[in-house]
Design a protein that fits this description.
By secondary structure, the protein is mainly α. About 40% of the residues lie in helices and about 10% in strands. The protein is globular and about 45 Å long.
Length: about 180
C-alpha cells in the first residue's frame, strides 16, 4: 500500500489508519527544517511548520494508529536528529528544527509510558551528508561524523553522553 498525505492532516492520517488496519511497525520519518537563522528574524509560518511536522504529526499518528496496533508486538519508531545532542554553537540558527525534535522525543517517551504493550523509541540515523544536512548550512568538516563517533562508542554507551538531560537537577532519578 502507498499513501500520499500531509502527516499533520488529522483527517488524512485517520483515513490512512483505517485503510491500513492492524499494523506491526510504524516509522515516523517526516521532518521540516525551517530556514536557518536567528529566532528574532524567523518567518513564524516556516518556524511553526517544524512543530506541525515534527511534533503535531506524532500526536496525530498516535491517535490514528495506536488503536489499530498489533496487540502483541507493535513497534513505533520516531526518527529524530542527532544534532539535538550537539552544543548550541554547532547548531546555531536551527532552533525550530532542534527544539521541535526535542519535543518529539518527549512525546515519544510519553507514548512509550502510556502504551507499555507497544515498543516506542526515538532513533536518529546518525550524521550524514544529506540535502537536509546541507540545507541546515552544514558541511562535513563542521561536525563530528559517525566515523569519528565510532571511536568513542563505548564511552557514549557507558555514560549519559548523547542523551537529553538536565545537569544538576537535584534528584537522584535524574542520573
Amino acid at each position: 500500500m502507498t499513501f500520499c498525505a500531509d502527516v499533520a492532516d488529522d483527517n488524512a492520517m485517520h483515513h490512512i489508519a483505517a485503510e491500513v488496519g492492524t499494523w506491526d511497525a510504524f516509522i515516523m520519518n517526516a521532518a521540516h527544517i525551517a530556514e536557518p537563522g536567528p529566532i528574532a528574524s524567523a518567518r513564524i509560518s516556516d518556524y511553526w511548520a517544524a512543530y506541525e511536522t515534527n511534533v503535531k504529526s506524532v500526536v496525530i499518528a498516535a491517535t490514528a494508529f495506536i488503536p489499530t496496533a498489533n496487540k502483541t508486538h507493535a513497534t513505533i519508531l520516531g526518527v529524530t536528529a542527532g544534532g539535538i545532542s550537539l552544543p548550541l554553537a554547532m547548531t546555531s540558527g536551527l532552533s525550530a528544527y532542534m527544539t521541535s525534535k526535542v519535543a518529539m522525543v518527549k512525546v515519544l517517551e510519553f507514548l512509550a509510558f502510556e502504551n507499555p504493550s507497544i515498543f516506542v523509541a526515538s532513533v536518529h540515523p546518525g550524521i550524514f551528508d544529506t540535502t537536509l544536512f546541507r540545507k541546515a548550512g552544514f558541511t562535513p568538516e563542521m561536525l563530528p561524523m559517525d566515523s569519528e563517533l565510532q571511536g568513542i562508542a563505548s564511552k557514549i554507551q557507558e555514560s549519559s553522553l548523547m542523551t537529553i538531560k538536565v545537569d544538576g537537577w537535584p534528584s537522584s532519578t535524574a542520573g
